[in-house]
Amino acid sequence: NRDVLLAPSILSADFANLGRDANAAVAAGADWLQIDVMDGVFVPNISVGLPVVASLRKAVNTTLDCHLMIVQPERYVADFAKAGANHITVHAEATTHLHRTIQQIKQLGLTAGVALNPATPLGVLDEILPYIDLVLIMSVNPGFGGQEYIQTSTAKIARLRHLLDAHGYPDMHIQVDGGVSARNVAEIAAAGANNIVAGSAIFTPQRPAAEMIELMRAALR
Ligand code: DX5
Q: Name one GO molecular function term (predicted).
C-alpha cells in the first residue's frame, strides 16, 4: 500500500503559539502542514489568511498546504504563492473557471489540488484530473474542526482510487480531511487515501502533538 503522508491542520492549534505548535508537529514527523483559510462566505467561519502564511513560512521548514475555503480563490492564488505556499487546494464549488484557476496555480510553480464537499460527486473531477496533483475529499462539511467523520466518505475514497487507477493516475494524492483520528485512519488509508489531514486529532490541549502524531502513525502500521 502507498506511503501515507500526515498533514496536520493548524485550525486546532494554539494560535497564540502557532510557530511552537507548527514546529512541534514537524519535529514529530508531520509531512505537510495544512493551513485552513476560511472567508466566512464559502464556509460559515473565518480563520486565517496571508499574514499567517507568511509568518509560518519563516517559522517552519515544511510543505505549506493552503486549503482555500474561500469564494473565487483565483483572486488570491498569486498572493498565497508569494506568502510562501507550496501547495494550494481550491474548492470545485468555489470557482467558476476551475481549469483556469488550476493553470494559474501551476504556472506559479506550486502543486494544485481540487477539494470536493461531501455532497459533490466525483464526476466533477472528470475534465480536471489531467491538470492536478491532488484531490481533497472533505469528510466533514467544511468550516470547523472537531466534527464527526461522515461515514459515506470511505466508499467515496475507494471509488475515487479505483477511478484514478483505471484512468492512469497512480501518483495522484487522495487527501482526506475532517473527523480523521487514530480510530478511523486505517480504514481511510485502506480505502485509498494517501494524504491525511487531521486537526483536532493532532492539536489538543490535553496531549502534545508529538504523542498524537505517534498514535496516528501507529494506527497506520
Ligand atoms: C474543516 C477543515 C479541516 C479541519 C479538520 O473545515 O477543513 O481541515 O481543520 O479538523 P478535524 O481534523 O478536527 O476534523
A: metal ion binding
